[in-house]
Amino acid sequence: MLNVDKLIYFRWPLSYDRVMSKKKAILLCALIWSISLGFILYCWIDQVVYIHLGDCSLQMTQGKKFFYEIFIVIFCVLPVTSSLIVSIYLFKLTRQKRNSTIVGGDQTTFSNKVKSLVFIFATTAWTSFSLLPYRLMNLARIHLFTWSSLECADRLRMTWIAWCLVYLLTINPIVNPLITSLIYAPYRMTIKRFLVN
Fold this sequence. Notes:
Helix content: over 70%
Oligomer: single chain
Order of helices and strands: HHHEEHHHH
């Protein structure tokens, strides 16, 4: 839903104030939070997820493990994928407009919009590269092969791939601020002033 908001802002900027007011934005955020919290509460109340008394580990009830797949698809794969698709579309749109002739005073505005889109595209591309592979591998592990049927060498290979993807997942919040600080001009200038002074 927030990716639709981003698309409207960059694709139809003159219509944005009419389509997306402050009240609509608050309602949109409230809806997203309600869906997220509602899903978690439902899983907890319906005993989809419970704490095992023996070792205090978090477990899933047999027969309800499909909720994990629903969680991965709705809350992990779809938001990142839709964000990547919108970012690629906006990046292509910007390149097309850059190649067309720009009327006099619009040059500065267009240049600022290009910088914003490059920033959005870079952070989205990194997020997709670091977050999606682990989630997709989990879905593949559930649907495409059975762990017990794999040979020892294949299990070892899959374990190494899984560990690499987990590390990629964990370095996402480390690299994301670096991308932001290097690409987004206000942050870059602030860091430059801080280092020079």
